[in-house]
Amino acid sequence: xxxxxYYGNINRPFYVVLTAIVMTGSVMVSYTRARAxxxxxxxxxxxxxxxxxxxxxxxxxxxxxxAPVLWxxxxxxxxxxIHRMAFTYQEAKRLEDAQLRAVRAETPxxxxxxx
Length: 115
Known about the structure:
- The protein is mostly helical.
- The chain has a single domain, classed as Up-down Bundle (Four Helix Bundle (Hemerythrin (Met), subunit A)).
- It is built from 4 helices and no strands.
- Helix 1 runs antiparallel to helix 2, helix 2 packs parallel to helix 4 and helix 3 runs antiparallel to helix 4.
- The longest helix is centred in the C-terminal third of the chain and has 49 residues, at about 65-115.
- The chain is elongated.
């Protein structure tokens, strides 16, 4: 929020938007993992998790290079979100296929015992 206020006060609307994209991407990284792990056992894919974002923000603040750091976080956090979504889709499909194979394998055995 501090960066949004700062860039707003120095009349840099482009960086206000960039900071908003970074904030949205950062929230979505955690959200996609939480939602994915409701469907699949684990979703620990992607690079831009909280420790990486914090380290990059510290580096940007220490070396007065916040704009490049925001670009890196904006791009990599959103790539991480897309990666997690694709990974979750693939894993859910794999689990569904495995369940269908298990049901099909059980069906002939059950019909033999019934007769």
